[in-house]
Structures are given as C-alpha cells and as structure tokens.
From TrEMBL:
This is Endonuclease/exonuclease/phosphatase domain-containing protein. Gene3D superfamilies: Endonuclease/exonuclease/phosphatase. SUPFAM superfamilies: DNase I-like.
C-alpha cells in the first residue's frame, strides 16, 4: 500500500467541532434535493441501511485518535458498512472498533493484492452474520469464460483471477437474507499508455467476473439467497454508457441505482469509483441512495478557495480520498 502525502505542517483540530459540522451537513434540508445529504435513520423496521467506503490506506499511515473519531462518527450512521483498503496492520482498525459503540461487530479477510484486506462492520442490534461467507474466486478451469469485448479497443488478454478476491459475507435482518461481495478492483500500473490499457482491460475482466458470479448465484437452484449485491471500489471511471468498466459490470444484470446527490465518490470530484451494484430483484427494493461528501465541511478553518492543496491533503490523509456511498434497502 502506498501512503498518501502527509500534511506539512501537521493540522490538529477539535474532533467534536468536526463531528458537529458533519452532523449539521448530513441533516440540513435544501430546496434542491441534489444539495441535501440527508441519510435515513437506522432501525427502520423492514429496512437496512448499507454503506461502502474506501478508507484510504487504513492502517498504512497512522491516523491519530481525533482522525479515528471522525471516521467512526460517519460509520456509526449505518447498519452494514463494507470497507476497503484495510491494511495488514490492524491497529487503526482495532482503534476504530474500540471507538464505535459496543453494539458494532466486524469481520475481515487476509491481505491480498497491494497488501490490502477488506472488512465489514455491522450493527448487531439489527444485523447478524449469516451462515455463508468466504471469498469470490474463479478457478483456473473457469477462467476461459471470463471474456468481455464490446468493441472498445482494449487489449485482448487472459483473465488471471482477481488481484483481491471480493470478500463474501451474508447477513440476516429480520429473517431476511442478504449476500454481499466487498470488491476492490485492480487499478494497475499507469506509467505508460500500454500499461494503462492493460490495467483497464484487467479491471474490465474483474468487473465482468463479479457480474457473472452474481448472475450465476442468483439463478442457481442452490442459492442461499437471491438478494445479492456487489459493493465497493470498482475503480469505475464514469457510471455511464460507453465506460468499459460500467459496461462490463452491468453485462450480466447488475444494476446501479442512481443517487440524488449526483456527485462523484472521490474527493477530487472526478470519478464514480465506488458503487453499490444490486441484482435485478433488489432494484425495486432500493428506497434511497446517496453519497456523503464529508469534505464539504471538514476542516473549514483551513479552507482557502484560492489555494486548496493543503486543505485537500489534510482531508485525504486524515479521513479519506473517497466518500462513503449508502443505500436504504427494504425487504
């Protein structure tokens, strides 16, 4: 894992002030729904509030107690949270769990590509682990079936398996079953035009592989549940027709419910990296979804519209370079 740039000088702040700003931003009602960031309340009967968040290099560069407190506040708003970029060193993750209310529990896998783990944090007051868990892999004999060519001009390469196997975990909410695959698709080398093209193709194949897996499992007569979703950081450039990752992810029936916030999921406001992709049966069960741009309000005391570099470095390093994406699902 590559650490983000450390702010220089170090910025120290009052975590309570930042948390108050976050809550005010979350709860403020605007005339235009696209400007509102209202996140539904947890504990709604017949519903579950889900989020996915890439917490950049979580444990690779050491966050302070005040940083962990800000991150924990946001996580505490949800009932199931899929987290990407958890480092092999779990000290910061364990600090996070210690700060969260004690009704939260967690599960994570071993490190894979880029030295990363994936994790789920969940509210045990309403959510319990289901019987099915593991990782989504593609055995060698099945890899020839992972092909995708829609005339986009990307190189024709063989699928070699996931760089980071999606972390599979099942949950039960009010006797309803939900199966989630926590994904962080390969970004890959970007140093030359050839490597960028090869990386994009490998990512496209990973996107198609998870779409195919979701499709096959939901149609299987042996399915533990047909309520399946793939969530996480898909390194998706743009969630629209013509994007090679978007096309591959949706090829086997997955759908990306649109969020009213209509903002990118990275702090740089440039890409739709993070997604919650649901199988067709869950489309009509999606009540609401949105992106929470914590960066709109944190560290306002150092914001300078004419020189944003230092503020942006602080937002990314102390919190994350990704924004959480959430969904309210009904059963």
């Amino acid at each position: 894992m590559r650490s983000l740039t450390k702010p220089n000088p170090e910025f120290t702040y009052d975590a309570a002030v930042q948390i108050a700003a976050l809550i005010a931003h979350r709860d403020r009602v605007h005339a235009d729904p696209a400007d509102s960031r209202q996140i539904p309340d947890v504990g709604q009967a017949g519903h579950v509030l889900i989020a996915t968040w890439n917490i950049a290099n979580f444990g690779q560069h050491k966050r302070r107690d005040i940083d962990i407190a800000v991150i924990a506040e946001i996580i505490s708003w949800f009932e199931i949270i899929a987290i990407q970029e958890v480092a092999d060193n779990l000290i910061d993750f364990e600090k996070l769990m210690a700060v969260l209310p004690n009704h939260f529990s967690y599960i994570f896998n071993d490190k894979a590509g880029n030295g990363e783990r994936a994790a789920y944090v969940f509210d045990t007051r309403r959510v319990r682990l289901g019987a099915k868990m593991g990782e989504v892999g593609v055995v060698e004999s099945d890899r020839d079936n992972i092909t995708f060519d829609d005339g986009d001009g990307l190189p024709n390469v063989a699928f070699q398996g996931y760089n980071r196997n999606p972390l599979l975990c099942s949950f039960e909410i009010e006797n309803h079953r939900l199966l989630m695959a926590n994904c962080h698709l390969l970004y890959g080398p970007q140093d030359t035009a050839q490597n960028r093209a090869l990386s994009l193709k490998q990512r496209q194949l990973e996107a198609y592989a998870i779409s195919r897996w979701c499709d096959l499992r939901r149609k299987s007569k042996n399915a533990w549940t047909k309520n399946i979703m793939a969530v996480g950081d898909f390194n998706l450039p743009h969630a629209n027709d013509g994007d090679p990752i978007f096309e591959a992810l949706l090829d086997r029936g997955l759908r990306l419910p649109q969020h009213e916030t209509r903002i990118p999921t990275n702090v740089s406001d440039s890409h739709d990296y993070d997604q919650i992709a649901v199988t067709p049966g869950l489309v009509q069960q999606t009540v609401d979804t949105g992106v929470f741009d914590f960066d709109a309000v944190v560290f306002g005391e150092i914001w300078d519209a004419n020189a944003t570099s230092y503020w942006r470095t602080c937002a990314k390093y102390y919190v994350s370079d990704h924004r959480p994406l959430w969904m309210l699902l009904k059963f």
